[in-house]
Amino acid sequence: MAAHPLDRPIWTMLTGRQAHLAEGDARALRIDRGYGVFGVAVDAGSEAQAALAALVPDDGELWIVESDPWPVPAGTREVKRAVLAQMVADGAPPEARAGEAEMLALGEGDAAEMAALADHAKPGPWGPKTHLYGPFFGIRESGRLLAMAGQRILVPGMAEVSGVSTWEDCRGRGLARSLIGHVMRAMVARGEQPFLHSYADNAGAIALYESLGFRIRRAVHVLAIAR
User: Which fold is adopted by the domain 87-219?
Assistant: First the structure.
């Protein structure tokens, strides 16, 4: 058993607060395909690995996120590996700054714009239902959605900041900082501790997150597999 719920974030997610999004059985699970590409096996044994391989779509990928590098299940191939910095925020969230743009709640009517922004900014896997994970907020100007941020993984007492995206021509204005702060405050108001994941080599993003009160908890490993 993991010492901390974030040591196996996808397993904790799909067997806990977001079990209603899970497909599979006690050997291996994946998230509803509309929400994303994450999958997890109960362990690295052959039976669980075979069950995990069976959840890989014919025309796509399955992403495994674990504390240690994960072996490639038989019958699948490695698409990529990456190391993430898993970060948690321990203290009070940052206060809103004077003059910040209005943070707008985003919903079903914004889904197409959110998907286009995610496709542009590449904040991580995005599917047709990703916007339904939980509260997403955006900043608009003259009707255009400039930036957004929201949440994804939920574990006991914690929520993941995710989907942070800004159009390239709108960067450098502090929009992501404002949105992340807003999302953090909403989480803390619900009694949840914010956490997030960043590619470990993205020094700029990590510096931003640290300035908002996050600290690196540990490295975690991503393995993307396909048939």
Answer: Aminopeptidase (3.40.630)
